[in-house]
Specification:
This protein is of the alpha+beta class and about 110 residues long. The protein has a single domain, classed as HIT family, subunit A, CATH 3.30.428. It contains two helices and five strands; from the N terminus they run αβββαββ. The longest helix is centred in the middle third of the chain and has 17 residues. Bound molecules: guanosine-5'-monophosphate (5GP) and zinc ion. The site of zinc ion has 6 residues, from helix 1.
Length: about 110
Amino acid sequence: MPECIFCKIAAGEIKADVVYEDDYVLAFKDINPQAPIHVLIIPKKHIERADDIPVEELDVLKKMFAAVPKVKEKLDVDDVRLVFNCGPKAGQTVYHMHLHILGGRVFGWPPG
Ligand code: 5GP
Ligand code: ZN
């Protein structure tokens, strides 16, 4: 997807503060952090929404979640909130699915 900002980050065309990378996923610091720790994990392959992953692509979730403890260890954070915003009403602004890892502070519930 040539106009997708996260595809460009995955391709190294736009710089990001990378925390973890393997063949399938990239984890990088959010440019506008909402907590002391705010990392995004993306699949390198373009998938628009986490609530509408094609069945044949579901293995990517395993890769994304396998990266979570690696990010936690690298950034030395204990408790985290993991978030997928799916669609405009849920606050999704970038339509390349991404898992937010937020930590370093106490979070309220319910979320806003
Ligand atoms: P969403 O609102 O779609 O759930 O989350 C998109 C996130 O991507 C936002 O938290 C936003 O700050 C982050 N973001 C948008 N553009 C960039 C960028 O170019 N670089 C980085 N590192 N984060 C970005
Ligand atoms: Zn993309």
